[in-house]
Design brief:
479 residues; alpha/beta; 13% strand
């Protein structure tokens, strides 16, 4: 048995939801907490770890024998431990194409595996016992686990405060008929605390009695029990909404959480092999390339893909298109028109995946046609790149409201169910023409400055992060 000694550092167990868009912010949060003297135990599922390992093996002729994605961080002196956990499904189970059964497993079965893990860690860590749980807000079990093992419960929300407020008040949306009925109301929603008004078309897309609805409803019941809530947003940009949430909870806006802010270390966390687009981008003029990506989860139908392809061709702009075959909702890989890649090869690069932050920060990038996932929005603004908004599911519609109508750093694209190649062409030309998009470019520079200023020494997010750390230490009896 190890000798018990006085603990000098708080020890946080960090568990992200097993999706790329949730893992990345959790990694950078872990790095920042570790730089504040925390011991971190970071938990990935075995499946996610296997995907990351495969991607590293594919991309490197010298594979890393250290199984921790934090090996370089640890070499720099940070105390980050890395472990994996079973998610209830075999490794060869297709979680993307069977998303609803997978989400049902996360709701009903995953907590048992987490409970077993935390119990083991609490029992085994005599020297540095776990003092707090930092879990993704979309889990339905953190309050139960934290209470059972008497550790501080921190809920990490990886999206903006607007989305948090809407999910938090699902009951109001149901009571007023904007959600949960066969024919939801389509008029403006003006009764959500902290939200002046929002059109029904901008509400997160959920379906009555769906697994997604069940997950979000349970998660936002559980988050009410959290000791502290932290969010990947900026106080100045969502002040009214954040102030309303803070009337009920210890809520800290600590964003933007992007890799460039917190560390110079390279963390390989991609679930797929990343094609290097730098050499191709280096051949293109400044601001001349449109980056097109719909993220790591959302499915795009075949008809939209074909119209996008023709629209990109008609626009005659340079583009990089991230076209995931597992994101098409079908098996066929030859979805593009016959001879398409050859026809656009001089100005178009089509790859399955890339390092988005590396691409979007390149000087050749002048616009982003995006699904409006929050990480993509944050990274685009951080790099001063305006957006064309093509939201598909869940929070992406509400994120569009912030991008297009609040901050005016992007244009709306997807109003109807169907898109046309002519519409695609027109929107792309508008965005990529620096004269027609001059106001957007001016606005995105201003919001970018707010992002950067928030992380300065006296910036709101840096101050909030330090307050969060002190409260976390105090609640852990380690102040």
């Amino acid at each position: 048995m190890a000798e018990i000694r006085d603990q000098k550092h708080p020890h946080a167990l960090v568990i992200p939801c097993p999706f790329q868009g949730h893992i990345n912010p959790a990694i950078h949060l872990s790095l920042k907490l570790a730089s504040k003297g925390f011991i971190i135990t970071f938990v990935n599922t075995q499946f996610i770890h296997s995907q990351i390992t495969k991607a590293q093996l594919t991309s490197s002729s010298k594979p890393n024998n250290d199984h921790s994605i934090f090996s370089k961080a640890c070499e720099s002196g940070l105390d980050i431990r890395y472990i994996t956990i079973f998610d209830g499904f075999p490794l060869d189970f297709d979680r993307n194409m069977n998303s609803l059964p997978f989400l049902e497993g996360l709701i009903n079965e995953f907590s048992g595996h987490v409970d077993e893990l935390v119990g083991k860690l609490v029992k085994d860590n005599y020297v540095d016992p776990i003092t707090c749980l930092v879990a993704d807000t979309f889990f339905v079990w953190p309050s139960i686990i934290a209470k059972k093992y008497e550790i501080v419960n921190v809920s990490f929300f990886t999206e903006p405060a607007l989305v948090f407020a809407l999910y938090y008040h699902l009951d109001l949306l149901e009571e007023n008929g904007h959600f949960g009925s066969e024919e939801n109301r389509k008029d403006t929603v003006d009764y959500i605390p902290g939200v002046k008004s929002i059109e029904a078309s901008d509400l997160p897309s959920l379906f009555q009695n769906s697994v997604v609805h069940q997950l979000i409803y349970k998660a936002f019941q559980d988050v009410r029990q959290a000791d502290i809530i932290i969010a990947n947003t900026v106080q100045e940009l969502e002040l009214e909404t954040i102030t309303s949430i803070q009337e009920k909870h210890n809520f800290y806006a600590i964003g933007p959480i992007v890799s460039a802010n917190f560390t110079e270390l390279t963390i390989s966390s991609s679930l797929w092999f990343e094609f290097d687009c730098t050499q191709w981008l280096d051949t293109k003029p400044c601001g001349s390339v449109l980056y097109v990506s719909f993220g790591s989860v959302a499915l795009v139908n075949k008809e939209d893909i074909l119209e996008l392809a023709h629209g990109l061709m008609l626009s005659e702009v340079n583009f990089i298109w991230i076209l995931r075959f597992n994101g098409l909702g079908q098996d066929e890989k030859n979805i593009l028109p016959l001879g398409y890649e050859e026809a656009v090869k001089n100005r178009g690069l089509i790859v399955p995946w890339c390092n988005q932050s590396r691409v979007i920060s390149h000087s050749a990038i002048g616009g982003f046609l995006s699904h409006c996932g929050w990480n993509s929005v944050v990274e685009s603004i951080w790099c001063g790149v305006p957006l064309i908004c093509f939201p598909l599911v869940t929070d992406q519609l509400a994120n569009r409201k912030l991008v297009v109508y609040h901050w005016k750093v992007g244009i709306n694209f997807r109003d109807g169910e169907l898109i046309t190649r002519e519409e695609v062409c027109d929107k792309i030309k508008y965005l990529m023409n620096k004269e027609t998009s001059s106001s957007l470019r001016k606005n995105v520079v201003q919001v970018k400055e707010i992002f950067h200023d928030a992380l300065a020494t006296n910036g709101s997010s840096n101050v909030n992060f330090n307050k969060f750390v002190e409260e976390l230490k105090m609640k852990s009896s380690l102040a």
